[in-house]
Amino acid sequence: MLKPSASPHLRRIERPFYQAGGVLLCLVPLTAFSCLYYGVRPLLLVLIGMITAMLTEVFCAAFARRRPTLNDGTSAVTGALIGCMMSPLTPFWVPAMGALFAIGVVKMPFGGTGRNVFNPAAAGVAFCALCFPTRLFTYPDPAQIAPLPLTDTSSVVTALSPAAQLSHNATASIDWLSLITGNFAGPIGSAGVIVLLACALYLWMRRSSSLLIFTPYLTTCALLAWIFPRSPSPDAVLTELCTGLLLFTGVFLLCDPVTAPRHWLARVCYGVIAAVLVMVLRHFGRFECCEFFAVLLVNALAPMLDRTCWRIADTVSEVMNR
Amino acid sequence: MAPYKGIHLTFEKKPAALLPTAQLTDVKQVVLPFAYPTAAPVSPSVFLYDTLRRGTPLSEVEGEPFSVMRSSVTGVVCGEKTVNHPLYGELHCAVIDCSSDTGDEVAVPEDHLVTTESILEAAEKAGIIDELDGVPLVLKLREFQETRIDFVVGDAVEVQPYASSAWATLRSYAEEVLDGLSLAAACAGTNGYHIAACLSPSRRRSLSLRVGKERFFKADSRYPVKEPVRRGRKNGGVMVSKNAVVRRVGVQACLALSRAVRLGEPHTTAIVTVAGDAVKSPQNLQVPFGTSVQELLTRCGLSCDPETLILGDIMTGVASLTQDVPVLPGMTCVLAFAHRPTKLESPRACIGCGRCVRSCHAGLLPFEIYRRFENMHDEQLAALQAHRCDGCGTCSYVCPCNLELTATVLEAGRADNTILLDLKEDTDA
Predict the structure, then answer these.
(1) Which among A3, A12, A307 is the nearest to B307, CB-wise?
(2) Which pLDDT belongs to residue A187?
(3) Which chain A residues are Cβ-neighbours of B402 within 8 angstroms?
């Protein structure tokens, strides 16, 4: 019995978990790197973010009488990213609140995976930064080689992060080796520049992220940091690039396929605009880590960038073919 | 402007591509339309129980002599029927019983000087249809005459997974194909005629020996084929500039043109690849037009009852719900599969990976067209130029969310603003 079928009859099959699986895999060494300095606390923060995000999706799906799509792993990624953007000292309920906001307000009301306009993880952390800034931006000193306590963290020695030092126009007293190895006060995901770059390479090889966003973003950031340095130190550019969530944002938030543009030219513009916004917010913003705000702003431009850049590229192509 | 990446498909051409082309001569019956699909009035010129010779015109088409179908066999008209062809739509056909085939009596033209006019006349008289696009060859040759053309390329670039009919044609008739190509180039007034193919090094060497190294262009193996030549660089020792005007002709049409001009033969056969996992012995068959697909499958043998029958190759072919379909010009591949070639899960929402944009050789935004079409944003849809889609299927192939992008973009291209117009008409009424 012959059955109808639409062309193309051949498809490249990809499991729903493939894209998110790659990101989750990248977050494992990143969290492990942080655990080396701070004990098991960073891991718990990430896990709490993940579990809350997944539970929120189940609840929202039940509310909307739909089947939850946990198998695509996007909720887990959102929760894990929120956890990674927290300070290791953040109370456990803060990533839970961020994940709740990200899934319950930014993702599910728009229709779930693939339909959200803004990056849920960036929105979740932005929500936490606005509501609980002191809890988010207080970092333990990595020089104290002792695991952080799970409950009472009042006795932990804290340190000013290089990003905070830069925002106060002070010379960041940190050598380049510590910057590269992540041996400085900062969020969980910012530790380990080498790991972050390896993650970027891995995600690009899996085709989960685009170098057309990451490279212009990083280049523009470096260029702006060189033109408008915030510190007189000779390592100002390197410090600017390696501290805060600048690299983490470039690897994980900006390259989120749902909210990023699809056209190659739009991606380049997207990366450049994001970098400009990040540097403007770093110079004039209130918070030391403000990359997620820049992501939310540039997310709103993505559809417009896609259409405009496609039109420009198409017109140029036509003119060249004449 | 956008970097063209295309996709690489896995070739499944073996074993059909390795076997010699088999002739299907013992066909009992053929079903042929009186004319190719046309808007012009068609009046049949053969009737029930008429005895026909191979090449006899079946009808007269007012103003379009190239749309006339010719009998592909010698036989007797034993009936008429309407066939709903998956590729050509509804066709009014003559059923010709060729059991009384007594051989061909072809009038070989006298040896005289071949001129452009005589080539055009022969192409029209032989009823040659280009298998690449289904366009009568005579129309193409006339267009060649009117345009300044630098290269005429015999397109044997079969980068779809199963089809190997062009390879088979080249292997069996390379010299005749090159001759036909030279005739087409003569119409275009150029000496730049070449065969483009994507072959293994050993086959390439063997073909180069037969047709001459300078007459062979090595083509790119990426799907879809944007052009059979690589511009701005040397192809087989011949420089093809970026502004060169290149025209393509199918190799089977070249073969038919050579035979029409040199031997006075009508275009009555097609070389068809029969393959798929339900076919016991995949091979290339040379069959008269009008032969039923069922006969092709019977000849190659079926290992099981197929669930999917595809006319054309796997990327762009059309699924047929019946095996009782005649082979017509333009059909070069028949695939039979025990099940669907790819088992699809239900579609998910677009995750924005952008692969559809990267793979689209027409430079469109398939995901955006899909979104606008689904949400009925007709005004924005018009600006996205969906009509430029040629249905190559790469966007659907690469989509990780199993979206029917190709079908939607094609539909959007056809609908282009009509929904708004319809609403207006309704309001006026």
Answers:
(1) A3
(2) 87
(3) 11
Mean per-residue pLDDT over chain A, rounded: 87
Cα of A115 to nearest chain B Cα, Å = 7
User: Tell me, which fold does domain A17-311 have in CATH?
Assistant: Ammonium transporter fold (1.10.3430)
Nearest CB neighbour to A4, from listed B319, B349, B394: B319
Q: Across the A/B interface, how many CB contacts are shorter than 8 Å?
A: 141
B309/A2 Cβ within 8 A:
yes
| Option in A114, A306, A313 nearest B349 (CB) | A114
Asked if B158 and B78 sit in the same domain, the reply is no
Q: Is there a single domain that holds both residue B129 and residue B232?
A: yes
Interface-testing mutation among B1, B12, B302, with chain A (most A C-beta atoms within 10 A): B1
Residue A10 DSSP label:
-
| Contact (CB<8Å) A19/B406 | no
Model confidence over B132-147: pLDDT tens digits? 888 999 999 999 999 8
Q: Do the chains contact at B354 and A263, CB–CB below 8 Å?
A: yes
Judgement on whether residues B320 and B181 belong to the same structural domain of the protein: no
Supply the range of the domain harboring residue B373: 355-428
Residue B3 lies in a domain: no
Q: Do A2 and B322 touch (CB under 8 A)?
A: yes
- ipTM reported for the complex surpasses 0.90: no
B342–A11 C-beta distance less than 8 A: yes
Contact yes or no for A7 and B356 at CB 8 A: no
Smallest Cα distance from B95 to chain A, Å: 24
With beta carbons under 8 A apart, name residues in chain B contacting A263: 2, 354, 357, 365
> Tokens for B2?
């956008």
B107 pLDDT band (50/70/90 cuts)?
low
Question: Is residue B7, in this structure, part of any structural domain at all?
Answer: no
Are B169 and B259 found together in one domain? yes
What is the total count of domains within chain B?
Answer: 3
Whether residue A255 has pLDDT greater than 80: yes
Asked which of B229, B263, B297 is the last residue of a domain, the reply is B263
pTM for the predicted model, two decimal places: 0.83
